[in-house]
Structure formats: C-alpha cells, structure tokens
Design a protein that fits this description.
heterodimer, A: about 550 residues, mainly alpha, 2 domains, 4-stranded mixed β-sheet, 4 strands, about 5% strand, B: about 525 residues, two-stranded antiparallel sheet, globular, membrane (chain A), ND/Mrp_TM (chain A), NADH-quinone oxidoreductase subunit M (chain A), ubiquinone binding (chain A), transmembrane (chain A)
Chain lengths: ~550, ~525
C-alpha cells in the first residue's frame, strides 16, 4: 500500500542522498557536483509532484502522516506520588495538509531551479552544494514538521547553511551580511523557542490513563496534542486553577495567551519580515549570491508567514481576531513602506528587496482578513511571490554575471543584445505588479477582497500600494530592458540553456497559477475549515 | 556504615568501608608511584610513559566507580526499592550515591581526555617538567571527587583545597613563560581569598547550628523553628556564594579567569574549565539543596532568597560572560568568558529549586555538564593544535583552517554549534532541558535571559567559524594533528553528536536514578 511508504520523510531527507554523493566526489570531478546536486533536488520535486497529484482535499493528508517518538526522556517524578511515568516527549511527527502542500511544492521547485542557477558559483563548488542540500532539508522539514521542537530544529537547520552560503559565496560585504542574518534570525528563533516552551509546559501537558490506576504524565510539543488540548474545555490548559484542587501550573491565562501569541508574532515577524525588523533581509538580498537569494526570497521568507499562520493564528484564533486590525495595519505599513522605498532605490537588487517587503505586506493583509477568501489569497500570494521573486533574482544573477553590476543607472538597453532574457524580465516584472493572467494578480485580488469584508478603510489604503508597485517595478524593468543602450553591453550573449530552462519553468508556473488558480486552491479547500469554525464570526467559504 | 539515624560521632573507618574508597585509593597510589618513578627515570627518557600510566590510573579508577555504581543498582533492584541505600562513610561526611558517582565519572573521563590530548601537544620546551604535569592531575581529580561526595563542610573544604592547591601548581608549570607565572600568581591569590571566604562562610553555618554535617545543619535549623539571628545566616551565605562564585568563575567574580586561562598550559585550562568548575558547582548543588529548604525565620523568606540569589548570579554570569566575549580576540580568553556564561547555565538547575512538577534539577545539571565537558575539551584540543602550529592562540590563527585541516575544522564546527546551543548537538538538548525546567518552574525571566545570552553568543562562536571557513591565511600548509589529540577531538565530536541525536538514555538514567531525596540531600 502506498500509504505505508514514509513519503514525507523521503521528501525531507532525499537531498541527503545528493549530499552523500557530492561529499564522496573526488576533487578532480568537482565540476560534476552541480549536476549531482541538481539531480538530488529533483527527487523531492518528483515526490512532491506525485503527492500533489494524489492528494485529496476531502480526506486531507492524514493518511500520509508519520509519527515516531524521538525523545521520550523521563523526568524526575519522586514528588508526584503514584505515577507510572512522567516524561518529556519529542515526536518525530510529519504531516501534510492543504497549507503545507503548496509551500512544499514551491520549495522543491525553487530549490531545483536555484541549483541550476548556481552555475555562476566558481569557487569551492563541492562545499557550496553540500550546504545547499542541507538548506533544502531544513526548508522541507519546516513545512512538514508537526512537532514544535522538531519544527524549531528544522528552522535552525536553515540558519547554519545560510550563514555559510552568504558568508563564503556572497559579494563584497558578505561576512557582515552573514553575521547580521545570523543574529536577527537567531533572535527570531530564540523568541520562538521561548513561546514554544511556554506552549509545551501548558497546552502540551497530557494525562493518560493506562490500566486501572497508573497515570502517565507527559509534556509534548506535538501540534495535534496542542490543538486537542486547546479545543478541550476539560484539558488542564483551559482549567482555571481554582477549579482544580491545589492549583495547576498548566493553566494558560488570558494574559499568558496574549504573551505567547505576541512572542510568536515577533518571532515570525522578523523572518517575514515585518517593518521595522527588515534591515537584515536587505543586506542578504544585496550580498548573497543570486541563486541563494532565489531560495531566500522565494522560500525562507515564506517560512515566517507559514509559521505565523500555523502556530500564531491556528492556535490563538481568539487573540488574532481582536488583533486583526493591528495585523492589517502592519500589512499596510509593509506594503506602502516597501513600495515607496523601492521607488527611490538605485540598485535593482534593492528595488526587488523592498518589493519583497511590500509583497509580504499583502500576505499579512490576507492573514488579517481571517476569512476564507483572504486566507486563500495569502497562501496564493506566498507561492506566487516565491515564484516571481525567484525568477527575478534568477535574471538578476545572469545580468550581474555579464554586466558586473546591478546599478540601475549603468544598466540599460538589454532588449537589443539579450531579447530572451529581457522578455523574461519584463514578464516577471508584470507578474510582480499583478497583471491579470499572471499569478501575482490572483493572490493580491483575493487577499484584498477578503480584507475588504472586514477592514474596508485599510483596504482602500492598501490599493494605493498596489498602484505604487506598478510605478517602481516598471521604472526599473523598463530602464534595464529598453533604456539607454550602453556600448559595452551590446556584445553580451543571451541566456544559455542552463539559464533559460529555469526561467521558462518558473514563468510557466506563474502563468499556470494566473490562469488556473484552482491548482493551488483545490488542496486548500478544507484547510481553513477548522480555523474558521473557531472564529466567532464563522466561516463563509 | 549507613546507620539509620545519622550520628555525629566519628566512627573509625573499618577495612570493609575502606573498600568503598577504591577509586580514590587507586588515584593516590598511582600518584605516589608516578612521583617516585619520575625521580628515577633518566632525564633523557620521554615522560610520555608517565602520561600513559596516569591515563591507566584514571581509567582504572573509572572502572572502580562504575563497578560500585552497577553493584548498588543491582543490590537495590528488588521489589519496591529502586536503588540501594546510599553508602555513608565516616558519619555521613563522605557519601557514595548516584549523584556523586555520576560526577566522579564525568571528572575522571574529563581528566582522561585531557591527559590523552596533552600526550600529543605538550612540548618539552614549553613545560619543563612534563612528569609533574601528568601526575599532578591525579590528586586534583581526587579533590574534585571528594567535593562531589562531601556531606560535611570539613570534607568539602579539604577536597576544595586539594583541588585548588594542585591546580595552582599546574597553572604555573610553564616556568619560563612570564604569562604563566603571572597566571599562577593571580590564581593563587584570588583562589586563596576565595577559599578564605568559603571557610569564613562555613564558620557562620557552624556558629548558628553547632554542626558541620550538611544533614545535621539542616536538622538543627529545623529544630530551631526560627533562627535566632537570620542576619548572620545571610552573611554566611553571601560569603559562601562569593567564594564559590570565584571558584566557578561566575560574574561578577570572574575577573581572574581570562588571565589564568590564557597563562596556563592549554590542557590545564581545559581542566580548570571542566573539572574545577564542575566540582565546585556540584558541591554548591548539594550544600544548597541540603540546607536551603530547612532554614526559616519569621519575616525572612530564607529559602526563596537563597534560590533567587543563585538565579541572579546565574543571570549575571550569562549576561556578563557573553557580552564580554563579544570583543575578545584571544581564543583562550574567549573560552574563559564562554565558561563564565556556561557557569551561569549550570547554576540555573540549582537555582530553580524544587516544585511538585519540577524535580529534574540533577538531570538537567548532569546532562548539560556532560555536554559542556565534551564540547569544551574538544574545543580546547583544537585550540592547542592551532596554538602549536601558530605559536599563538589569537582568533586569527584559525583563519583558513578549512584548507589547512578540513576534518579538524569540521569537528570544531560541531563543538561551536554545541556551544552555541544549536541542533543537533549535545549542547542543544542540554540547554533545551534547562529551559524546559525553567518553564516548568515558571521562572520565565531566567528563561528569557538564558535564551538572549545564547543568541548573543552566536556572534562570537560564529566569528570562529567565519575565520575557519571564510578567511584565508595565505599559506595552506596543513596543520599536523597528533594521533592522540585527534582521537580526543573525534571522541568528543562523536559523543556531542550522539547526545544531540539520542539524548533520551542519558537524561532518563539520571532522572530515574538520581533521587533528590535519597541521593542529593544529606539527611
């Protein structure tokens, strides 16, 4: 039976095959490392595609779920009286649902394309691909982990390879950028760990009756356990201490719920990034090698939004509901701030970096709407922006390799020497500003439609940002493709095959989502039912 | 032995009881034997043979501790009783229990790894008396073991002094080096003052209770209902805390550590960082838990204050240690300051006190101590290699290590990840368990401080990684790795990873076997 195969584990860890092969590659064959790594990224891509095809939104992903106890460490129970066992449980728990699945697909696609785009990497190729594959394992794990501590470990696992990928293979200011990346994200994950531990010792506490008298007590970070306990009015997390004889340390008071929610918001806000925590990502966008920026902007930023949705919003619907205005406000600030600053940048990479901030603002708007349309819009926007920014940085990498700069004042007139690449750049730019028929449009439209139901005033302001995005994106893209023709640029070769293939693939997906968004929305169909049921207004989709 | 009621009469040591001291006897016998051997060996003979014999002694002693541990476990495996009675020697002044045995194993293993690592890296011209270098470690370990087993203030103090005095000598062994002499002098002075403070603090405890045994002190406190002069108790506790604060190098009592760590021969630095620190922490642990809960006086929340004070000390150590390390360019000084922060982490399980739902203090402490031992000794072994090839131990010496010794660089990366508390290493789970304990106890502020200090520490741990992997020195001549040092590095790296992947057995063993009431508390 197919369900018996641990397909999710295979997806997460298959890049390790490539890692092993690259590590064992003799030095004189180092130039093959790229193809091995690319091949290794195709395995999770293929498996994910298969999973996508086989996924049934009606039954959800429960049949693919994997559960094994990794750590089951006894705690000291000598003061607890008659207790069979008292343990801290860390589950190796993977699961997939309509929310994980699109992001999983995004990760595998972007990773494969980035592996191809890494042709520009000239030094220490073997190490580059080793770190790259570790990074992919981390990213895949983040979207599939269903245990808080496991999620945290995968999240940290992306940190270490990114530090080295930026610091060794980046541009001039690479080491500073790597350090700043590490400290900001380290801070984010530290805040996340605090929030998770508070959840583990309250909502993660479980009492299981086994046999006649024996009671098994355990702390667990399992997402299912948390959801179950939060939903159960008789779980310790919901029992006011007065109701239990002798008090209980497991009760989560209203203020504690708020604290944990705000901690999660801060933790994932740094990753997203939410203004004013965005400075680290500008440096990364400018200094990291382009193929790594593809991954960073395409996938890593999405981990922030995913975490916020999965842990912040799903676990604390009541808090989110009364906080939705602030969330929407943060989204509008991101949207406008990013758009306005993108307009005045001189470096194309910075234009794109600020544009990312702006687009992540739209994701926040979709989340803040707290209705089916808006949440769907947020997820589509995540995937769409992941694809678009990966494509844009792919082109940027090729441009930079040829021209040696990304300064807008120096670039210009590429349409003549490189018609293909200019066309792709133009298409990506149009997708980014939300042209109908391309993926950006669907996400923005749904997110704003959703928000209009709840916060019409803010929606009106947000639309202003959309107009601005057209202005800044067209300004820079048109300047590069058509602007002043520079003499030294006329001899450039157009895209090579290894550059053209990922460009075409990414653009094809952008068009596909644009004309047929159901490919994303159909697995999403029932993913928000549970959340919408929890909200006081009830769901409408 | 093991009378039902603790008597303060000093019973003579019977021959049967003497057998319980086997681990200590073995070390002392080897010490005397090797001291004599060193005298008679020809000057030209390599002292490595003494090193190997020291190693043999340490391993034999480890065997003896392990044998006793297993023997007691089996003796108690009958119905009802999970563990046999604690062995109390000399009127409960010397205890053989699981807490002590676990720590003894850690100290012995640490010393063995340190001896093994020195065999490859300590040069004749650097340490003129290499024989002393090895066999003086034996009485130092005996001192540490006594501190782990001590149930009495006097025993504790004797162990402490035995450890301190031998390490004073060991620090100054690089006779021709000005730095080493300076370090030894600083260490003697601050160490001596700290010992005096500890002794002075003990005298207050004795004055208030008329007893030196931990259990007897606790009983006296209990029978007094209210202590006549709580101020005096506080004075004594402050003195003890200050004295032990110096010994474990917790801020604000840490100023000696960078100088001494820098001046001492690198393996001795590792010994100070792991064994000397661990022994003092263990002694504090037992002392505070044994007497902390029983002192009471109206209007004076004595127990709360003691534990709060420990947490404050821990917080200060974590904050000061990590921030001071940010600007440090010398590796040994940097690891000294990192050790200050780690002393803070290790103080947390002690300061968390006990709650119904949280009594895993010994497990948290022991697990992190073992993870700390592995990563620290490993890191010091790598530092000693760099020091040997470059003649200095500045951070810049690590530049281009990835090209010069790729495997060692990878091992060092494992140690750094563990020190920074990143998965999948022993350091990660060590910190996670301590954090979990803090969350269970509701001590959220210390949780926040510990997490913040870990993040700040990323900066300097990864600065080393940056040197190793991103910088280049120009010359790519390989760094020679002596076999013994290489073995130590890879034992430490492998075990660090093992603890990061399967932490369950170790933590479960400690939490199931080391009971707070029967093993830790002296009653």
């Amino acid at each position: 039976m197919i369900a018996d195969i641990p397909i999710l584990s295979m997806i997460v860890f298959s890049p390790l095959l490539g890692l092993l092969a690259v590590a064992l590659l003799p030095k004189s064959y180092a130039h093959y490392a790229k193809w091995i790594a690319f091949g290794a990224t195709l395995i999770p891509l293929g498996l994910t595609l298969w999973l996508y095809a086989a996924y049934d939104a009606g039954t959800g992903g429960t049949k693919y779920a994997e559960l094994a106890t990794w750590v089951n460490a006894s705690l000291n129970k000598e003061f607890l009286g008659d207790v069979a066992s008292y343990t801290f449980k860390l589950q190796y728990q993977l699961g997939v649902d309509g929310l994980s699945l699109p992001l999983l697909l995004l990760t595998t696609v972007v990773a494969s394309m980035a592996a191809l785009a890494s042709v520009h990497i000239k030094k220490r190729r073997k190490s580059f691909y080793l770190w790259f594959l570790v990074l992919e394992v981390g990213m895949l794990g983040v979207f599939l982990a269903r245990d808080l501590i496991l999620f945290f470990m995968f999240f940290e696992l992306t940190l270490i390879p990114m530090f080295f990928l930026i610091g060794i293979w980046g541009f001039f200011g690479r080491e500073k950028a790597a350090s700043r990346f590490l400290i900001y994200n380290g801070l984010g994950s530290a805040i996340m760990l605090v929030a998770f531990l508070l959840l583990v010792v309250t909502a993660g506490f479980q009492v299981e009756q086994t046999g006649q008298q024996a009671v098994q007590l355990s702390y667990s970070g399992s997402y299912d356990v948390l959801l179950r306990n939060f939903a159960d009015p008789n779980a310790y997390v919901n029992l006011v201490p007065d109701a239990v004889q002798g008090g209980t340390p497991f009760y989560m008071s209203e203020s504690m719920r708020w604290t944990v929610f705000l901690l999660l918001l801060a933790a994932f806000g740094i990753k997203l990034p939410v203004f004013p925590f965005h400075t680290w990502m500008l440096k990364v966008h400018v200094e990291a090698p382009p193929s790594i920026v593809m991954v960073h902007s395409g996938v890593l930023l999405k981990m922030g939004a995913y975490g916020l949705l999965r842990f912040g919003i799903f676990l604390f619907p009541a808090q989110v509901e009364s906080f939705s205005f602030v969330l929407a406000l943060l989204g509008v600030i991101n949207l406008l701030y990013g758009a306005i600053l993108a307009f005045v940048q001189k470096d194309f990479k910075l234009v794109l970096a600020y544009s990312s901030i702006s687009h992540m603002g739209i994701v926040l708007l979709g989340l803040a709407s707290l209705n089916g349309i808006g949440l769907n819009g947020a997820v589509i926007q995540l995937v769409s922006h992941g694809l678009i920014s990966a494509l844009l940085f792919l082109v940027v990498g090729s441009l930079q390799e040829r021209a040696g700069t990304t300064d807008l004042q120096e670039l210009g007139g590429f349409a003549r020497s490189m018609p293909f690449m200019s066309g792709i750049l133009l298409a990506a730019g149009l997708a980014s500003i939300g042209l109908p028929g391309l993926s950006g449009f669907v996400g923005e439209l749904l997110a704003l439609l959703g928000l209009y139901d709840t916060q019409p005033a803010l929606t009106a302001v947000a639309v202003l940002g959309i107009i601005l995005s057209a202005a800044y994106m067209l300004r820079s893209v048109l300047a590069i493709t058509f602007g002043q023709v520079q003499e030294r640029f006329t001899t450039f070769r157009d895209a090579r095959l290894v550059e053209a293939v990922p460009m075409i693939v990414l653009l094809a997906l952008i068009v596909l989502i644009g004309v047929y968004p159901a490919v994303l929305t159909s697995p999403l169909k029932h993913s928000f039912d549970f959340l919408l049921g929890q909200l006081s207004g009830g769901g409408d989709s | 032995m093991s009378p039902d009621t603790v008597s303060n009469e000093l019973a003579p040591l019977s021959w049967a009881d003497a057998a319980y001291f086997a681990p200590e006897w073995i070390l002392l016998a080897f010490f005397i034997l090797l001291a004599v051997l060193d005298l008679f060996l020809a000057r030209s003979t390599s002292r490595a043979v003494i090193g190997y014999l020291t190693l043999t002694g340490l391993v034999a002693s480890m065997g003896a501790v392990l044998w006793r541990l297993i023997d007691r476990d089996q003796a108690g495996s009958g119905e009802g009783e999970p563990v046999a009675d604690v062995i109390r020697l000399l009127a409960d002044s010397y205890r053989i229990d699981d807490f002590a045995s676990m720590l003894k194993l850690v100290f012995l293993a640490a010393a063995a790894l340190i001896v093994l690592m020195s065999l490859g890296t300590v040069k004749q011209e650097e340490v003129p008396n290499r024989g002393e270098f090895y066999y003086l470690l034996l009485p130092a370990v005996v001192g540490a073991m006594m501190m782990a087993s001590a149930g009495d203030l006097i025993t504790l103090y004797v162990g402490l002094e035995l450890l301190s005095v031998t390490t004073y000598v060991l620090v100054g062994l690089r006779k021709r080096e000005v730095k080493s002499a300076e370090a030894a002098f600083k260490y003697v002075v601050t160490g001596g003052i700290a010992s005096a403070f500890i002794l002075f603090g003990m005298s207050y405890l004795y004055g208030l209770t008329g007893a030196t045994n931990f259990g007897a002190i606790a009983q006296a406190f209990q029978s007094q209902q209210a202590i006549a002069a709580p101020e005096l108790l506080y004075a004594g506790l402050f003195l003890l805390l200050g004295g032990f604060g110096v010994k474990i190098a917790a801020a604000p009592f840490h100023a000696w550590a960078p100088d001494v760590y820098q001046g001492a021969p690198t393996p001795i630095t590792a010994f100070l960082a792991v064994v000397a620190k661990g022994a003092s922490l263990a002694a504090m642990f037992r002392l505070v838990f044994s007497i902390g809960f029983f002192a009471s006086a109206p209007g004076w929340p004595i127990a709360d204050d003691i534990f709060l004070l420990l947490l404050v000390l821990a917080a200060a150590a974590m904050i000061v240690g990590t921030t001071a390390a940010l600007v440090q360019r010398n590796m040994k000084r940097l690891l000294a300051l990192s050790g200050v922060a780690n002393a803070g982490y290790l103080l947390i399980p002690i300061g968390l006190s006990l709650q119904d739902m949280h009594a895993s203090n010994t497990g948290e402490f022991g697990f992190y101590l073992i993870a700390y031992m592995l990563m620290n000794i490993g890191a010091f072994a790598v530092v000693s290699l760099v020091e040997r090839s470059r003649g200095e131990e500045l951070l810049g010496g690590f530049a281009g290590m990835y090209h010069r010794a790729p495997w060692t660089a990878i091992a060092m990366l494992i140690f750094l990840l563990s020190l920074a508390g990143l998965p999948v290493t022993g350091g990660f789970f060590g910190k996670l368990f301590i954090l979990l304990g803090a969350a269970q106890s509701g001590a959220y502020w210390i949780l926040a401080v510990m997490v913040a200090s870990s993040v700040i520490s990323y900066y300097f741990y990864f600065a080393i990684a940056r040197q190793m992997f991103m910088r280049s020195l120009g010359d790519d001549t390989p760094i020679p790795v002596p076999v013994t040092t290489g073995i130590v590095i890879w034992i430490c790296a492998a075990l660090t990873l093992v603890l990061g992947i399967v932490p369950t057995p170790l933590l479960s063993w400690m939490n199931e076997h080391i009971s707070i009431v029967t093993d830790l508390l002296v009653r």
